[in-house]
Amino acid sequence: MFKFVLKPRAARSLDKLPHFVREQILKKLQFYSQQEKPLQFAERLKDAEIGTGRFRVGDYRVVFDVEKNKIIILKIGHRKDIYR
């Protein structure tokens, strides 16, 4: 079982999003946290400086790193801006 941890930068990004998008992302992260293997829904990132992987939630991306049984969310943003 994996536990999700939001870094302060990710929490600030999440707070700035419109309410319906924030709810959509939180609902999807809750779904992933209840799965036995949530990383099967993720895609690995080629640039390890950004993060290990990402989840896709509509037009938004959740970039994360994995440490033991924790998924540490580094960034949340629109797909056009997240990789810059």
Task: Show the helix and strand layout.
Elements: E1 3-6, H1 8-16, H2 19-33, E2 43-44, E3 53-57, E4 60-67, E5 70-78
Parallel strand pairs: 1-5
Antiparallel strand pairs: 2-3, 3-4, 4-5
Per DSSP, the total helix count is 2
CATH evolutionary superfamily: RelE-like
Which architecture per CATH? 2-Layer Sandwich
- Assign the structural class, choosing from mainly alpha, mainly beta, alpha/beta, alpha+beta, or little secondary structure: alpha+beta
Total number of beta strands = 5
Order of helices and strands: EHHEEEE
Largest sheet: 5 strands, mixed
Query: How far is the first residue's CA from the last residue's CA?
Result: 31 Å
User: What proportion of the residues is helical, as a percent range?
Assistant: 25-40%
Low-pLDDT residue spans: none
Could you explain how this protein is built, in words?
This protein is of the alpha+beta class and 84 residues long. It has a single domain (3-78), classed as YaeB-like fold (2-Layer Sandwich), CATH 3.30.2310.20. The chain is built from 2 helices and 5 strands. The chain has helices at 8-16, 19-33, and strands spanning 3-6, 43-44, 53-57, 60-67, 70-78. A 5-stranded mixed sheet has the order 1-5-4-3-2. Strand 4 (60-67) and strand 5 form a beta hairpin. The longest helix is centred in the first third of the chain and has 15 residues, at 19-33. The model has no long low-confidence stretch (mean pLDDT 94).
